[in-house]
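Reviewers of the previous submission asked for a worked example of the structure-prediction workflow described in the proposal, so we include one complete record here. The input consisted solely of the amino acid sequence. No template or homolog information was supplied to the procedure at any stage.
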Amino acid sequence: MATPHIDAAPGDFADSVLMPGDPLRARYIAETYLEDVRQVNTVRNMAGYTGTYRGRAISVMGHGMGIPSVSIYAKELITEYGVRRLIRVGSCGAVRDDMQVRDLVIGLGACTDSGVNRTRFGGMDFAATADFALTRALVDAAESQGLAARVGNLFSADLFYDPRPETAELLRRYGVVGVEMEAAGLYGVAAEFGARAATICTVSDHILKGDSLDSTARERSFDDMMRTALDAVLLDDRGENA
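From that input alone, the workflow returned the following structure tokens.
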């Protein structure tokens, strides 16, 4: 049934949903990578689509910016539409000395300065981690395309413009592989409601070095990430059915 944020009918979403932040990016993914596409959500212009990839039904839907936004959409997809597998596909910043723009990053875990998971977890710290099998499928899919993926902790920031200049250096010291704004919330929602989630990102800029991708390089790197995410769904299917 429809929710305050999603007007899709029952059965409109596949059990696996890829989630970029930008709803226009969701439309691009659907039109570029899926076949037999139909739009299933229009509320607040947060576009959602369902189509097929190599014969497998897959949906794609924007999640907006930040943990509160992704948490709303992920929760409603899981509890109201029966979605069991969610993969965030997006961009992130790097802080480590041995990383550079265009690197592929897979979030095994997600640190955060947000308090949402502590609220969710009775005031205690919650280790926000991705589903292992889904993460392994992402790694295997990347390797099958000859892509090296960095796997490790993301940092899901509450503030895009962080007034604390020391934060990036702290994250570098702890080996964080990517700075973004949603994974920790997505993992918390998935854990609470019994779904499986993972995150794959392309490094679009290096926060400490000041490097960034131009528009052409962003598109090329995005294509690597998307084909990895889509192939991972198929690989994960095989693991579940083995």
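The two ends are 33 Å apart (CA to CA). We consider this example representative of the routine output the project will generate in years two and three.
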